[in-house]
Amino acid sequence: MRGWARAGAAVLVLLALTSCSFTAEDPTYVPPAPLPPLAQLEQAPLVDPAGYVAGEDVLLFATEDRGIACSLTSARGNHINLPYETNTFGDAANNKLDTVPVAHCELAVYPPPAPADVRDDCAGTGLGYLGGVAVLQPVQATYGACRSGVTAMESERGPKGTGQGPISEAAVLPEGGNLERNGLRCTAYNGGVACGNVSAGVGFFISPERYELLSPSVPAAPGGSAETSKTP
């Protein structure tokens, strides 16, 4: 009996050893390149917007590192309804203006705008057109604006930021998350944020190191960056 017991134990040990599996990293594996921004916006699953509501008809989110904050909101002319910047969107004088959906993003650290993307002479001075803000409307994406001083994002999360305020309290959109409001989408991916109107082929990608403005007028080049994109 003892012989049979020893033989049975040996079989069990052999089975246990042969059932083990080992994995090793493949040194030749190359991760696939990130999707182009508009493809990412089209394919990434939408998340429930309920956790990102920040006021009437506004969605607000921050990236996981809180280096970028974005609002999916509305504008009347140049007046954008934002939970983190003083604005005149609600002034009665602006009620006569059409209300359009807008995606507005700010970065704590950002690249300067390329000369071709400067859209304002800043009251004739030619000075003060700064980066750090990207805006998407249904048929146009822009980067930068005339301003003096820092943005709300820089004030809270920049190199000398306080770390306190509405942006610091914004819900985090996880990597790959995708939010939509009134036909505009924003997704956190590839170290930054892409926002776009997929049906119109218009959008932008922003990160602390670079940005792209996406337009349907020129097809996207291989690798996902459009020829019209600007990367300072």
| Overall mean pLDDT | 84
Supply the helix-strand structural class. alpha+beta
User: Quaternary arrangement of the chains shown?
Assistant: single chain
Low-confidence stretches: 9-17, 220-232
Cα gyration radius (Å): 24 Å
Helical amount among residues, as a percent range? 10-25%
Rounded to the nearest angstrom, the distance between the terminal CA atoms is: 81 Å
List the total number of helices. 3
What would the principal axes of the Cα set say about the shape?
Answer: globular
| Secondary-structure element order, N to C | HHEEEEEEHEEEEE
Percentage of β-strand residues: 25-35%
Largest sheet: 6 strands, antiparallel
Record field, number of beta strands: 11
Q: What topology emerges from the helices and strands here?
A:
Elements: H1 2-19, H2 37-43, E1 59-62, E2 68-76, E3 79-80, E4 99-107, E5 129-137, E6 140-146, H3 152-157, E7 178-181, E8 184-189, E9 192-197, E10 202-206, E11 211-214
Antiparallel strand pairs: 1-2, 2-3, 2-4, 4-5, 5-6, 7-8, 8-9, 9-10, 10-11
How would you sum up this structure, described in words?
Helix content is 13%, strand content 28%. It is built from 3 helices and 11 strands. It has helices at residues 2-19, 37-43, 152-157, and strands at residues 59-62, 68-76, 79-80, 99-107, 129-137, 140-146, 178-181, 184-189, 192-197, 202-206, 211-214. Strands 1, 2, 3, 4, 5 and 6 form a 6-stranded antiparallel β-sheet that branches. Strands 7-8-9-10-11 form a 5-stranded antiparallel β-sheet, with helices on one face. A hairpin with a 5-residue loop joins strand 1 and strand 2.
